[in-house]
Design goal:
The complex is a heterodimer of chains A (about 200) and B (about 300). Chain A has about 200 residues and is of the alpha+beta class. Chain A has a domain of about 140 residues. In chain A, strands 1, 2, 3, 4, 5, 6, 7, 8, 9 and 10 form a ten-stranded antiparallel beta sheet that branches. In chain A, helix 1 crosses helix 3 and helix 2 packs antiparallel against helix 3. In chain B, strands 10, 11, 12, 13, 14, 15, 16 and 17 form an eight-stranded antiparallel beta sheet that branches. Chain B has a four-stranded antiparallel beta sheet with strand order 2-1-4-7, with no helix packed on it. Chain B is built from five helices and 18 strands.
Chain lengths: ~200, ~300
């Protein structure tokens, strides 16, 4: 199995393209590596809701994961930046996913996420590895992971309120609540970029 | 049952000492020719004799390090003064440690003392890696950071395992670099078996318990129905291997991320975790028991 970053770029451009507007792969000033910038707006007619994100070029296991002396599994990892409007440093999402062939189709077999809030590290959050064995009946890995992220991100305003009482932070950047949508888009496009 | 005999002098003369059964002797300072412990074997051997079931590797340093000599079964080496020892002369009075197997180990025919890590091959698995520091380190840029992988260092060997020490750095321009280290345990076929003694250093170091990482049979289960299409009757064993291949990385990721939960940085430190996970996979492919040809062997 191989991961193709050009296919990923194409899939991201096709993905819910009214809300998610994706640029080509490019180089961020001061670095040498590829990254892809995009905006996300759940209500495209309301420009004030637009937020900026960046996915860095994925690293895939090369060679594939060794199973029974064959190259069988694939791990794909990446970092996603939330480019915050409040001039704070970016927040980061580290995404680790694993794929195995089901028949001829690469199939997601686990996903795990680590979220880092640079302005309020007490909010940092990581999920367990979500696998087929841990999902609820009738659900799948991506949906389960997104459900956990959504639940957490919905709790963030309360966490921030608690923090604000001790004077650390007043408002939660609104892009935080888009994290589940961003992770979902990345995972689904990654899954379609493996052949 | 296997046996090796060592003698002080050539032609099987002088005092002698026999060792029976497969065993490891990491330091012959503690092995004596006689019961009153007046003369030890350390740097005091000129003759070796093996029986039909003994595959013996002798080393010119303690801890199975340095140059090595493979001694076949039914060998009668009557004068080590005549046996070439790389560019350092001969083997007379040079043996400081040895290992004896009662079956031929899988790496024996390659002429190596253990499964080795092909460092060149390892480096090639990282995207656009480049060497640093006298070729003992290579680095690569991924995401927006630089990570270094130092040359794996042989750590220990037993009858059925060989251990390499692995160290990695994340270059952190804003403060001191982050460091990670662990021991990679391979079997005699060069198959990665375990990761132990995982340490992460960012200011104060923390260590992940060996149980947490190595207890791979429990907890995470990736098998589901994914193994079936390609297992062809060997489902259980293959499924276990799938579980093992992924779960070591996942457990590292999970436990380490819990530890850095309250830290913050430019993201490069956090991506260090996937770098480590990819390294574990790449190590499993860079280990070898093939005949070494134009490769760097870690002695």
């Amino acid at each position: 199995m191989k991961f193709d970053i050009d296919i990923f770029n194409a899939k991201m451009k096709e993905y819910d393209s009214e809300k998610l507007v994706t640029n080509n792969w490019g180089i961020k000033k001061g670095t040498n590596n590829l990254m892809m910038e995009y905006t996300y707006n759940p209500e495209p007619m309301n420009a004030s809701l637009l937020e900026n994100f960046r996915t860095w070029e994925q690293e895939s296991s090369s060679p594939n994961i060794k199973v029974a002396d064959t190259e069988t599994g694939l791990i794909v990892t990446c970092k996603i930046d939330y480019v915050r409007p409040d001039k704070q440093l970016d927040d980061h999402i580290i995404l680790m996913t694993g794929f195995l062939p089901k028949g001829n189709t690469p199939t997601l077999c686990f996903a795990q996420v680590l979220v880092e809030f640079t302005a309020n590290e007490n909010l940092n959050f990581n999920t367990e590895a979500i696998t087929n064995q841990t999902v609820e009946k009738g659900s799948d890995i991506t949906s389960t992971l997104i459900k956990i992220l959504t639940k957490y991100c919905n709790l963030l305003p309360n966490s921030i309120k608690s923090q604000s009482e001790i004077g650390q932070m007043v408002d939660a950047p609104k892009g935080w609540k888009y994290f589940p949508d961003i992770v979902k888009a990345n995972i689904e496009c990654m899954a379609e970029s493996i052949y | 049952m296997c046996s090796v005999s060592f003698f002080q002098k050539s032609d099987f003369k002088g005092k002698g000492k026999a060792f029976n059964d497969a065993q490891v002797q990491p330091d012959l300072t503690y092995q004596y020719y006689d019961s009153n412990q007046s003369e030890f074997l350390f740097d005091n051997i000129d003759t070796i004799q093996t029986d039909s079931n003994a595959w013996v590797i002798v080393f010119d340093n303690i801890g199975y390090k340095g140059n090595y000599l493979l001694v076949e079964p039914n060998s009668n080496i009557s004068d080590l003064n005549k046996v070439h020892r790389d560019n350092k002369g001969d083997w007379k009075n040079q043996i400081k440690s040895f290992i004896m197997y009662d079956v031929k180990p899988p790496f024996w025919d390659a002429g190596v003392a253990r499964p080795y890590i092909d460092y060149g091959k390892l480096a090639s698995y990282y995207p656009q890696s480049y060497t640093e520091k006298d070729n003992n380190t290579f680095a690569y840029q991924i995401e927006d950071s630089i990570y270094r992988i130092n040359c794996p260092i042989f750590s220990n060997q037993t009858l059925d395992k060989v251990v390499y020490s692995i160290t990695l750095d994340h270059e952190n321009a804003a403060s001191k670099d982050d460091h990670a280290s662990f021991l990679a345990v391979f079997d005699n076929k060069g198959v990665l078996q375990d990761i132990t003694s995982f340490v992460w250093a960012k200011g104060g170091a923390f260590q992940i318990s060996d149980d947490a990482v190595s207890d791979i049979e429990d907890g995470i289960d990736f098998i589901a129905d994914l193994a079936d299409p390609f297992t062809d009757g060997a489902a259980t064993e293959i499924a276990k291997q799938i579980d093992r291949a992924f779960s070591i990385s996942c457990k590292l990721f999970n436990f380490a991320s819990m530890k850095i939960y309250k830290l913050t940085d430019n993201g490069g430190m956090f991506y260090f975790l996937p770098v480590i996970c990819h390294t574990i996979n790449r190590l499993s492919w860079a280990s070898s028991i093939e005949y070494p040809d134009h490769i760097v062997i870690i002695k």
